[in-house]
Amino acid sequence: MAIELPDLPFASDALEPHISANTLSFHHGKHHAAYVTNLNNLIKDTDLEGKSLEDIIMAVAGDADKAGIFNNAAQVWNHTFYWNSMKPGGGGEPTGAIAAKIAEDFGSYEEFAKQFTAAGMTQFGSGWAWLVLDGGKLKITKTPNADLPMAHGQKAILTADVWEHAYYLDFQNRRPDYLAAFLANLVNWDFANANLG
Ligand code: MN3
């Protein structure tokens, strides 16, 4: 059973005007799809073939000889998680259990948003900004390239892709505007609540 490219959880134009159908057609249809193809080629006829995506990631995390497998597997996982971190008409202040947990661990939604934006802005080059659960406490983290929370014993709650391909067609170099649109209009708090368990 090969690793498969999941469909987007919304129509490709559903996030407009913030993220265009053009961006999503490249980002999902080309970038995400390429990571799936690369991964399947790399694990073909190895003991990793047939394992779950999470098991593949954890089996090769930290193994320099298998960085290619890690990078492609983690990017498959990261992108699926990123699509689900957004929804049409999302964003703004959280609701449900995540709202109380954010107030408890950050003091306020504004402080969460400030730290999340700072993480996305200060990730030099390509990578990801995350809301994670670490030892029972919510934290903001950032990871370079394909790296991801599960490789650091953390549980991912939300993510924003800050690779340029995520925003360049819609925002050009304006990463702060992309992150502001993500927080104000796109965050899927239902997904965050589900991840909080
Ligand atoms: Mn990407």
Describe this entry's structure for a reader:
The protein is mainly alpha-helical and 197 residues long. It folds into two domains: 21-84, Orthogonal Bundle (Helix Hairpins); 97-196, Iron/manganese superoxide dismutase, C-terminal domain (minor pseudopilin epsh fold, 3-Layer(bab) Sandwich), CATH 3.55.40.20. 49% of the residues lie in helices and 12% in strands. The chain contains eight helices and three strands. It has helices at 21-43, 53-60, 67-84, 97-106, 109-122, 168-171, 175-186, 189-196, and strands at 127-134, 137-144, 155-161. A three-stranded antiparallel beta sheet has the order 2-1-3. A hairpin with a 2-residue loop joins strand 1 (127-134) and strand 2. Helix 1 packs antiparallel against helix 3, helix 2 packs across helix 3 and helix 5 (109-122) runs antiparallel to helix 7 (175-186). The longest helix has 23 residues, at 21-43. The protein starts with 20 loop residues before the first helix and ends with a helix. The structure holds manganese (III) ion. The site of manganese (III) ion has 7 residues, from helix 1.
